[in-house]
DNA sequence: GTGTATTTGTTCGTATGTATT
DNA sequence: TAATACATACGAACAAATACA
């Protein structure tokens, strides 16, 4: 798994890691059950502190994307697992809220309902094509 | 314009204000050219500091939703105005990025492309129906 | 016009929490 | 754990604009 960080970005490093891990899971680059690099090794690869990687992993665990088994490391969680269904529902609700806020902002900028639907569909195609 | 803040929310107060002002502009509750309450009066209504309201207004100005004319107050900007077209384009690009990230996260949770499109369409209908 | 009081956004400093090393 | 840098939110004081007698 290759992660690229932008130190000058406004987005915190741990959120950049989170986003790219999610992208890797989505595209299948990281398979269900697969182990992620250790906090230490990834931090070393990225030339950042291990606390920062640890925070990213902790957030991903809280959101249901990862399972962390103490010293044996972090693994990609199975979305079908019963223990994860609840968290997936919470994230789906958060997604709906986000989509609503984006649609409202688009309307406030003078955009149309169709424009928003088209933009969403376009990004969906992008995200699901490999 | 009625704004409700949740002090215990994880979301900063100034972003809660931003979101609700955008919603008011989107639904037409705030018309183009209309004046917003002064930072002081709104801060007093909400029982928060004027700096927090001022920051919310400043962000909305930077994003192109408001025009601020010194001490004469803040006004709803016209999205059709040529000076605002550029900012609208920037926000549209940011929206596309956001949609892409949401779609990827949905896929990582085991969701389908159609599910995402449907969710987006549903929230679009919600946002554009009054 | 003049003087005063009120209202406005801005500038300064401070306290607390978060991000990162 | 400790230390640094930034973000969030607050309070006091300021100077420009406005209202009004």
Spans of chain A of at least 5 consecutive residues whose pLDDT stays below 50 are: none
Distance between the termini of chain A: 15 Å
Report strand order across the widest sheet of chain A.
1-2
Mean pLDDT of chain A: 91
Pairing-aware structural class of the strands and helices of chain A?
mainly alpha
Please give the most extensive interface between any two protein chains, plus how many residues each contributes.
A-B, 43 and 43 residues
Number of DSSP E strands of chain A:
2
Instruction: Describe the main β-sheet of chain A briefly.
Output: 2 strands, antiparallel
Give the percentage of residues in beta strands of chain A. under 5%
What is the N-to-C order of secondary-structure elements of chain A (H for helix, E for strand)? HHHEEHH
Over all CA atoms, what is the radius of gyration of chain A?
Answer: 17 Å
The shape of chain A, in one word, is: globular
Number of helices of chain A: 5
Q: What oligomeric arrangement do these chains adopt?
A: homodimer
Helicity of chain A, in percent? 55-70%
In short:
2 copies of one chain form a homodimer. With 130 residues, chain A is mainly α.
């Amino acid at each position: 798994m290759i992660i690229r960080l932008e130190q000058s970005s406004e987005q915190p490093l741990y959120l950049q890691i989170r986003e790219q891990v999610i992208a890797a899971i989505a595209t299948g680059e990281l398979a269900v059950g697969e182990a992620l690099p250790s906090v230490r090794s990834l931090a070393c690869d990225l030339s950042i502190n291990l606390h920062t990687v640890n925070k990213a992993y902790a957030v991903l665990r809280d959101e249901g994307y990862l399972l962390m088994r103490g010293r044996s490391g972090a693994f990609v969680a199975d979305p079908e697992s019963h223990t994860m269904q609840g968290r997936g529902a919470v994230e789906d609700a958060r997604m709906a809220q986000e989509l609503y806020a984006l649609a409202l902002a688009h309307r406030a900028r003078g955009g149309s309902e169709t424009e928003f639907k088209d933009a969403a569909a376009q990004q969906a195609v992008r995200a699901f094509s490999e």
